Amino acid sequence: MAMTNGRRRVYLDYSATTPVAPEVAQAMAPFLSEMYGNAASLHSYGREAAAALDEAHQVLGCAIGARASEIVFTGCGTEADNLALRGAAFAARQRGRGNHIISAPTEHQAVEGTLRQLQDVFDFEVTMLPVDGCGRVDPDDVRRALRPDTILVSLMMANNEVGTIAPVAEIGRICREHGALFHTDAVQCPAWLPINVEAINADLLALSSHKFYGPKGVGVLYIRDGTPYLPALTGGGHERGRRAGTVNVAGAVGTAAAIKYAAGQREAQASRLQRLRDRLIEGILASVPDARVSGHPRDRLPHHASFVFKGVDGETLLMALDVEGIAVSTGSACASGDPEPSPALLAMGIPREWALGGLRISLGYHTTADEIEYVIETLPRCVEQVRRAFADA
Amino acid sequence: MSGGVDSSVAAALLVERGYDVIGIMLRLWAEPAPAESAGRENANRCCAPEAVADARAIARQLGIPFYDIDAQSVFKEKVVDPWIRAYGEASTPNPCFNCNRSIRFGFLMQRALALGADFLATGHYARIAVTGEGAAARYRLLKGVDARKDQSYVLHVLGQRDLARALFPCGDFTKEQVREMARQFRLPTAERAESQDLCFLTEGDYRGFLLRQAPGIATPGPILNTRGETIGRHEGLPFYTIGQRKGLNIAPHSARAEALYVLRLDPARNAVIVGTADELGTSRVTIRRMHYVSGAPPAGPTRCSAKVRYKAREAACALVPLPDGGAQFVFDEAQRDATPGQGLVAYDGDEVIGGGLIAREA
Fold first, then answer.
1. pLDDT at A336
2. What is the CATH class of B218-279?
3. Residue from the list B70, B106, B110 with its beta carbon closest to the beta carbon of A337
4. Model-level pTM?
5. Does the CB of A320 have a partner CB in chain B at under 8 Å?
6. Quick check: A313 and B22 CB within 8 A?
7. Which of A122, A135, A286, B98 is deepest in the core (most CB within 10 A)?
8. Of A98, A99, A166, A96, nearest in space to A129 by CA
9. Looking at the DSSP assignment, which residues form a beta bridge with residue B351?
10. What is the pLDDT of residue B44?
């Protein structure tokens, strides 16, 4: 367990971000120093960079069952989602294909916010499908919601907040049969699950490097060849005209190294962490009254534990845990500190007094059994402390 | 922590004394920026983006955790809305009382306890004296040693339970000493200017704010003299306060030689009553709900001193507890500015006895 200034610190927020793996940093280092060429330049400096970038495309394509030419490096996962949705929606409009998009209320803000703008400002029609108590969309609901003018379905592969894995293979097949594009936000997945765009019939797929031991500031967008796509970032012809802007070569190289690293770790870590995670859930449920697991009990990311605690303010609980050195999150990246309950939890039918107390504990490759025991020991006391304080005043 | 000098020095002093300190800043409500500047961050002076950055940097320098907590909706509900309503009832409210009671020693205290804290410390200039121990402990609220900065007035709303878990590290020092300590601690706020205005008024003008937030709040009506004659028009009772002389729209012929002042506001007639300086002032002030720091009223009438506004001079008086929980104050000399809605705070020397909101005389 890490010690900082004599205090115990436990990082259990790997779904928020992961450390850069040493081999990733090593792979990036030359491109942050002597190999500084612009990959779009003609000369030898540019060629060095271009060769490294070509290889990064290869590696990423290979990792998700795609061709190198179908990979676009972006500035982050949110940007990848934005480019995918805007690119597909505006290209469809340009071709007069329709105006209807299908999604769900459990999507990450990167998707939710983009779709809201497409609806409110650009007059696309967005249907939000219901989700079950675990946050899952029923593929039959997708089938029923599809219309002749449906251009795009956007449903995430695994949920950031509750860890539930979606039946994307089935959803992708339904979309394909119907002729609608399928976009999936797979940002939470590469460190834990194999991804194959063929297996899930994805036309568009978004990743974020720092979620799988790569650097921050790099996202990946997969665009299936032949997918109608209008670039939202225009300028030079970078990334085959799909994302203008000088490519972050070091970031792309780091992302390639990271996906290789994750692929090597994934299987062994998934089974190790699943055991630790299950021990954590069991320990918490056994010692905290009025506690429930949110999300699917089994079909969930192996490193992901999420809870709701009745009558507890999740944000306050986070702070109480932080004071004890435990770094976790409420599960939704809520930059504003808004005291409203998570819309995703509410959509799952979780009552308000429970939904305010959402907590996500996400394990990582470096998580130890000791750390989990420390949480099992500390968290019940913190929940009790928060409940007592709120009852007191 | 506000990023300002007082709360920063308070935190630094506690760290120095060996306390395990957690920094908290509350994000308070401010009037939303006009639509054309959408996306601008909350502009409440207590927690503008620069203030957050300052406080965070200070916490980092002190090696303590720091959280900024969103208290906007509770602040709006418990402080701003009642403040607006009070103007609608022809009072002149002080929002700092509700803020200290419901936000600092309510919302914030709750969160501090939830984080495992034993005490809530603030940068207020006031002191706490303890006598006895354990269950027998009694807490007295005293003025800060710096008479010019003393903030015991706004803290009179606190009770035994609040004081038992409050710390006011700045209260033992003068502002000058606090500034000097900030320099010694190398805190970057040592020279920051102080603000007197209400934190949630972005434009600084409460009249415009009231009209935007409560459009129907101001109805023009007559200005009457003490004989009941109409001598002018007012723009709405919320824009006038007792003792006010400027900005009265009175016809020149009736202004005569003698200056006229607002004597009282009469919501029943929607009238502003004006009179001469010698008609201004009252020696009897009634408090409907009197709060005592000790938790109980004195056994009978008690000599003390009291002030009727934050910046008013303390004046000698008798405190007469009323059986219904109210109190009557009988001043030796008439108080010019006793204004319904403002707070009266009673002192025994340096000690705060308690206080309450000044009621409208029937």
1. 44
2. mainly beta
3. B70
4. 0.90
5. yes
6. no
7. A135
8. A166
9. B142, B348
10. 72
What mean pLDDT, rounded, does chain A reach? 95
Interface size between A and B, measured as CB pairs under 8 A: 49
Q: What is the mean pLDDT of residues A55-84?
A: 98
The confidence band for B250, taking pLDDT boundaries of 50, 70 and 90, is: confident
The pLDDT tens digits of the residues spanning A171-192 come to: 999 999 999 999 999 999 999 9
Mark whether B304 is an active-site residue.
Answer: no
Q: Is the pLDDT confidence value at A297 over 50?
A: yes
Cβ separation of A320 and B114 shorter than 8 Å?
yes
Phi, psi angles (nearest 5°) of residue B127: -130, 160
The nearest CA of chain B is from the CA of A336 a distance in Å of 8
- Burial of A45 (C-beta count, 10 Å sphere; 0-12/13-18/19+): middle
- CA-closest candidate to residue B42, choices B25, B59, B56, B58: B25
Q: Distance (Å) from the C-alpha of residue B106 to the closest C-alpha of chain A?
A: 6
ipTM reported for the complex, 2 dp: 0.85
- Residue in A233, A335, A221, A250 with CA at minimum distance from that of residue A52: A250
Q: Does domain B5-207 have CATH number 3.90.10.10?
A: no
Distance (Å) from the alpha carbon of B155 to chain A's nearest alpha carbon: 18
What residue of B is the nearest CA neighbor of A320? B115
Check if CATH label 2.60.120.380 holds for domain B282-357: no
Taking an 8 Å cut-off on Cβ atoms, the answer to whether A339 and B109 are in contact is: no
Q: Which residues on chain A are in Cβ contact (under 8 Å) with B70?
A: 336-339
Domain boundaries, chain B: 5-207, 218-279, 282-357
Same fold, B5-207 and B218-279: no
